[in-house]
Request: fold
Amino acid sequence: MSVSGSPNTKQEMAAAVDVVLKSFKGDKAELIPILQQVQLKLGYLPQEAMRKIAGFLRVPESTLFGVATFYAQFKFVPVGRNIVKVCRGTGCYVKGAPRILEEMEKLLGIKDGSTTKDMEYSLETVACFGSCALAPVVVVNDRVYGRMTPEKARELIKGKE
Reply:
């Protein structure tokens, strides 16, 4: 996900959340779609946004955080403009995913679950993409790169710079 034009101040963030909330009724059943839309707008779910959502839905913040932390899709810290995901499923693992991850960490200068200081890249591992025939697989933003090698990983990242 590439987040451009993300709100920089608390006031801009609050206004962005208000825009999202206007398209919902405030039913508890809307919790996950609201979280998804707010994250799409902001790039992550800041605590201030979570407070506004909890108030809008009339649920305790703890309930909201409980739901949001259950799903890996929700982020509580800002992510980079480019999200690099390395599959660690069995097929990818056997075909070299650990070497791919190691190369990505070296190239980006970050570990799995981190974001570069310039907010350009976030690096994540994923249990399985379901693209085992293309193993090992790396996904950058929404584009799938199959049959990845450490050399291809270098080309991929160098080409994005």
About this structure: Helices lie at 10-21, 31-42, 47-57, 61-70, 90-94, 97-108, 150-160. The radius of gyration is 18 Å.
